[in-house]
Write a structure and sequence with these properties.
This protein has seven helices and six strands, in the order E-H-E-H-E-H-E-H-H-E-H-H-E. It is of the alpha/beta class.
């Protein structure tokens, strides 16, 4: 076959489910050398043509290093689709202002609390890991169109203006619940 789907999953239950769809699932933490060696073995000397990561980067101890390690295993003309939850989402800002953020602590990750990325901090990390960004597409849901969202965004527009920040830029970055980045690998830079 021309296409092989290879996944890496630390959770044994999720790895078992993924193995029904993927050709190969490497069970382990992608931050561990042994797992990366197993991934190299699964790649059989070939390079990755397409990388897909959905919300997993926030769970790693060092997401940039994970990206760098995966980038080293990609073809120079490879593409990637990486989805990240928006750490600058209006609902998070609202609950932080209220002093009660039920999202925090809902999910315990291997390395403690999860990373949080804004669009700008995500773009910086992706570029530093060796990717060029083709698009950063906002992903929203129905809650982002309701009255709490509208009221919060109006209030935050005023705060942004008072701080000398473009309210249209702030709104652009606060509305999406996730960002979906389309990336190109390009040639690796020499250290």
């Amino acid at each position: 076959p021309l296409t092989r789907l290879i996944g890496v999953e630390a959770d044994p239950t999720a790895a078992a489910k993924a193995s029904r769809v993927f050709d190969t699932v490497v069970e382990g933490d992608v931050e561990d050398r042994a797992t990366l060696k197993a991934l190299d073995s699964a790649l059989s000397g070939k390079k990755i043509d397409q990388l897909v990561i959905a919300d997993a980067l926030v769970k790693f101890h060092d997401p940039r290093t994970v990206l760098v390690q995966l980038r080293k295993r990609m073809n120079t003309d490879a593409t990637a689709a990486i989805c990240l939850p928006n750490g600058g989402h209006w609902s998070l800002i609202r609950c932080q202002l209220a002093g009660d953020c039920p999202v925090a602590g809902k999910q315990q990750h291997r390395h403690g609390s999860a990373w949080s990325f804004t669009r700008i901090s995500a773009e910086t990390m992706l570029r530093r890991a060796g990717f060029s960004i083709e698009t950063a597409a906002p992903l929203m849901d129905e809650a982002d169109k309701g009255k709490p969202a509208i009221d919060t965004l109006r209030a935050l527009d005023s705060a942004a203006s008072a701080l000398g920040i473009s309210s249209s830029r702030a709104r652009r970055d606060m509305v999406p619940r996730h960002w979906l980045f389309s990336l190109r690998a390009g040639a690796l830079r020499k250290p």
